[in-house]
Amino acid sequence: xxxxxxxxxxLQAFTDAARQVPYQQISSEVFPGLxxxxxxxxxxxxxxxxxxxxxxxxxxxxxxxxxxKTIVTCxxxxxxxxxxxxxxxxxxxxxxxxxIRGERPAEFSATLQDxxxxxxxxxxxxxxQYRRRGxxxxxxxxxxxxxxxxxxxxxxxxxxxVKGVQLLGRVIEETAPVAFDQVWVACGxxxxxxxxxxxxxxxxxxxxxxxxxxxxxxxxxxxWVSQAESALPGGQKTNNHSALAGAExxxxxxxxxxxxxxxGGYGRYPKELRDFHMGLSFEGVPPFEPVYMLKLLYALxxxxxxxxxxxxxxxxxxxGGLQGRRGFND
Length: 330
Ligand SMILES: *Cc1c(COP(=O)(O)O)cnc(C)c1O
Description:
The chain is an alpha/beta fold. Helix content is 37%, strand content 15%. The strands form 2 sheets. The protein has a 6-stranded mixed sheet with strand order 1-2-10-7-8-9, sandwiched between helices. The protein has a 4-stranded parallel sheet with strand order 5-4-3-6. Helix 2 (51-65) packs across helix 3 (80-92), helix 2 packs across helix 7 (159-175) and helix 8 (191-197) packs across helix 9 (216-230). It binds pyridoxal-5'-phosphate. Pyridoxal-5'-phosphate binds next to helix 3, strand 7 and helix 8.
């Protein structure tokens, strides 16, 4: 399948596009003993790629419904989310403003060059200012709290974002070519994991944390699972695992979030990971970037020796991010 453009802000059209995303079986030599497939969500759109498309769809529809003219969001210099929001703004007629972490660099990253070319206005803030991005007066202090502004948090991690990922979870259940035992996903904020965990009923969802997060991804995922559940009409439960309450749910989620494969932190690409990357040059293995997907594949290979997984069928969510590969010059 060639990437098609998501060309209208229409939920039905988006869902149809999600249903067309292909599943690709990976050569058995890469993960001996496992039947591994990749769902190629990197192909859902050439620019609004991967999980970011799902986290944005309800945000974009909501922005349009509110009559917003401008979408404001934030991220780092190589952010896949910034890239996707800039593209979506241009595509769907919003002005986009990106609040970028750190001083304005002398030379823009390829991501920021694209964002600017797509028409995004870039506003650089100090790291100290950026740390306040979750606070209520963050936008006001930057002079951005105006009428007609719709704010999307970093990474698209809000309830609308999680609902978009739940749509993905339902599409996976509908379109999976075989019955999977597990679905694996890379975690930054944990919002994508939470959306899949709370919408996929017939197999377990495993998240690989790509940053040194202590319990922050776990807590965030837990928060979104509860939020997603209470947002359902009539207090209806999303599925069996989400019926678990508080502490029990934390314990349950902890088992599904693998925190030992971050390789020292976000964006780290040490030799061991590079060597693993080089070794992945099997025919029929799709392109992956080092920040998210590569750590996921590494974790799956290390974890695939575990008894509970052996002989299993695993689906890897290709959450996109390929534009970010330009930050790695090897
Ligand atoms: C943003 C991103 C993620 C992380 O998604 P979260 O919902 O923040 O956990 C995973 N993979 C890729 C390629 C991404 O760009």
